[in-house]
């Protein structure tokens, strides 16, 4: 804060709120040693990106107060960053918690300046509660129905699996709107639950630490909702269970960001990690396809649909990519965000109208309610 006061009183003689870039460099040379090295990097990024020849006092004040400014956002977008200090990976004498935060930064963020910003400002409060809470609820409900049905493997093949179940999405019960989301708490078996839980904890928790519960939760829930609506449009006679729509949304968004920022992602074994995630997703998707066409134990209703996986992937590579690509930046200022969000809303409206009119107009014969 001392640098900001010096900047304002010493050089801003006209009280305009601005000083020249040359004066700003002079201040950095005189007082830069008083700042945290990471904050100095941020100020240098601001100085190098400025094309107008002047620096705003409020921008500097915001940066020193750990707030992202519009000028700094422009510096990030322009990619004109000159980091004066060593990278986070080169820093030593870190305790276990600091190493974990650094690891998460390198696993999820492609730019060194963003990694330092996250490392400096992450406090662990609030913790990544969304993904952990969802996982606990999913496991608890699965264990409850496992004990109730006395089956844990391929639980969905039990003849009583759908009976009086208030959570599963079923085409005959589509008027009960909560089922378009609540189905994510039910799973086809321990193999289904295990894959989803592993992916959402390994990928979702680090993403929530960096981007927050609001952004990651939005991508997850949007994937779940898109999955159930996609099933209601394309696989109209099938029920639906599992959180795969949400899991595939966050994982596909993360993998797409790694691919688009390949050179900047300095995480270890990134190719191996991507291959592992893709193999797990492919195996789980293959299991879902096989189960969908396996003879049903509760005819004439088929086994759960696999289309929700595809709906989650579409959400991930559209909305998810935009959200996770913009660390601490305003989505409202980006046209691509509004394009994808508008497309998602239009799909929701179309799917709702489809569920209201298409089933009766097509004269489709649906399986009886469970």
UniProtKB/TrEMBL annotation:
Native organism: Eleutherodactylus coqui (Puerto Rican coqui)
The EC number(s) this enzyme carries: 3.4.21.105
Designated name of the protein: rhomboid protease
PANTHER family: RHOMBOID-RELATED PROTEIN, RHOMBOID-RELATED PROTEIN 3
Occurrences of domain Peptidase S54 rhomboid (ranges): 175-325
Highest taxon of the lineage: Eukaryota
GO cellular component, one term: membrane
Membrane-protein topology: Multi-pass membrane protein
Molecular function via GO: serine-type endopeptidase activity
């Amino acid at each position: 804060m001392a640098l900001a006061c010096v900047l304002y009183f010493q050089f801003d003689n006209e009280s305009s709120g601005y000083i020249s870039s040359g004066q700003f460099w002079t201040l950095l040379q005189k007082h830069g040693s008083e700042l945290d090295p990471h904050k100095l990097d941020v100020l240098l990024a601001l100085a190098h990106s400025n094309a107008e020849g002047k620096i705003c006092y409020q921008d500097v004040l915001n940066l020193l107060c750990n707030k992202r400014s519009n000028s700094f956002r422009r510096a990030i977008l322009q990619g004109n960053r000159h980091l004066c200090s060593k990278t986070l990976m080169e820093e030593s004498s870190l305790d276990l918690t600091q190493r974990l935060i650094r690891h998460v930064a390198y696993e999820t963020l492609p730019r060194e300046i963003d990694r330092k910003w996250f490392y400096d400002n992450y406090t662990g409060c609030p913790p990544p509660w969304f993904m952990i809470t969802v996982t606990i609820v999913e496991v608890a409900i699965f264990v409850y129905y496992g004990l109730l049905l006395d089956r844990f493997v391929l639980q969905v093949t039990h003849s009583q699996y759908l009976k009086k179940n208030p959570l599963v999405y079923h085409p005959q019960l589509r008027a009960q709107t909560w089922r378009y989301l609540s189905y994510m708490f039910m799973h086809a078996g321990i193999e289904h639950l295990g894959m989803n839980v592993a992916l959402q904890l390994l990928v979702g928790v680090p993403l929530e630490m960096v981007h927050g519960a609001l952004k990651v939760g939005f991508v997850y829930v949007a994937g779940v909702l898109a999955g159930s609506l996609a099933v209601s449009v394309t696989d109209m006679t099938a029920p639906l269970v599992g959180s795969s729509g949400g899991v595939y949304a966050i994982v596909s968004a993360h993998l797409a960001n790694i691919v688009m920022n390949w050179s900047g992602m300095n995480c270890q074994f990134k190719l191996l990690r991507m291959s592992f995630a893709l193999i797990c997703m492919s195996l789980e998707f293959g299991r879902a396809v096989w189960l969908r066409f396996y003879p049903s134990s509760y005819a004439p209703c088929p086994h759960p649909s696999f289309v929700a996986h595809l709906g989650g992937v579409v959400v991930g590579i559209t909305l998810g990519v935009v959200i996770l690509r913009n660390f601490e930046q305003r989505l409202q200022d980006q046209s691509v965000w509004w394009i994808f969000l508008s497309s998602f809303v239009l799909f929701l409206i179309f799917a709702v109208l489809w569920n209201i009119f298409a089933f009766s107009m097509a004269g489709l014969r649906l399986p009886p309610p469970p």
